[in-house]
Design brief:
This protein has about 290 residues and is α/β, with parallel strands linked by helices. The protein is about 30% helix and about 25% strand. Bound molecules: ribose-5-phosphate (R5P).
């Protein structure tokens, strides 16, 4: 296997290359003065199995197109298998037509990647597992929940209550994984979001958090409203310190300000979305998975 980095975050591919002890394929990317993308393979990949590393954070459409260029080029030039590692799989929240006339973006992305030549896909903490059903190629979801909780434990967070800020199946599973890795307990809250206004309402619920640290574990922080609501409930019930660990820190619309106002000690995310809080690499997650196969 060889590793090919897309331009969305080369450091992630370098970390995977170190974990797997496999060098990166030499490539060239650039943008022309008018903004158009240029991609060139600088060595032959004929007959190779390639791991293409390209997360799809904002600007999502740009990163998707770059991935399609890389897939098509490698396919045309004779790669044997093209394994895509996209820890943040953009558009996974638009998994169906919620309002009439909407584009089912996650399905369109699946079709586009397959047509371009992807033969396998790995992602991390996908918002909705059902999205993977749109793929006809093998498509797998991994989790960063255990890496995230280990980050907090290493920083001195003690016997935290792990909290899922909503009661969806995937959120509960992530909280369970994190709690197990920390040897502690977990609980969850229930939230509703107005599909038109985006307003988030989280129901009050008594949690075993008085005098304890709490770590909110979620897949995504977008506006920060979900985590901020959960943090306020935890603080009100006497939590000592509240932390937030997310896989994909999108941080839209002053999310960090909103989280600070809610009294959160620290927000941490992974390198699926490079940015001010992405302190955890997902490289060991995909490396472990590939080594185990
Ligand atoms: C929702 O179901 C997700 O798991 C996240 O909780 C949500 O996407 C976070 O969005 P926001 O930060 O805007 O509340």
């Amino acid at each position: 296997m060889r590793i090919l980095s897309g331009p969305s975050f080369v450091k992630l591919a370098e970390n995977i290359s170190v974990e797997l002890k496999i060098p990166l394929v030499k490539v060239q990317f650039k943008r022309f003065p008018d903004g158009e993308f240029y991609f060139r393979l600088l060595e032959s990949i004929e007959g190779e199995v390639l791991l293409i590393v390209q997360s799809l954070p904002p600007p999502q459409d740009q990163h998707i197109l770059e991935l399609i260029y890389m897939l098509e080029t490698c396919r045309e030039l004779g790669a044997r298998r093209l394994i895509v590692y996209a820890p943040y799989l953009a558009y996974s929240r638009q998994d169906r037509r919620y309002l009439s006339g909407e584009a089912v973006s996650s399905k369109i992305l699946a079709q586009s990647l397959e047509r371009a030549g992807a033969s396998e896909l790995y992602t991390v903490d996908i918002h909705n597992l059902g999205v993977l059903d749109y793929y006809h190629i093998p498509a797998y979801n991994l989790t960063a929940a255990d890496e995230i909780i280990r980050y907090f434990l290493a920083k001195g967070v003690e016997r935290p209550l792990v909290v899922a800020p909503d009661d969806e199946e995937a959120a509960l599973k992530r909280a369970e994984v994190a709690a197990k890795a920390a040897g502690t307990d977990y609980d969850w809250l229930e939230k509703q979001r107005d599909r038109y206004t985006g307003e988030i309402v989280t129901a009050e619920k008594t949690l075993n958090v008085s005098g304890r640290d709490a770590v909110i574990i979620d897949d995504i922080i977008s506006t920060g409203g979900t985590a901020a609501n959960a943090a306020r409930i935890l603080k009100k019930q006497g939590a000592r310190r509240v932390y937030v660990g997310v896989t994909h820190a999108l941080l839209a619309e002053n999310a960090l300000g909103r989280l600070r106002e809610a009294g959160i000690e620290e927000v941490v995310g992974t390198d699926s979305i490079p940015g001010p809080v992405s302190k955890i690499t997902t490289a060991p997650i995909i490396a472990r998975k590939l080594k185990s196969m």
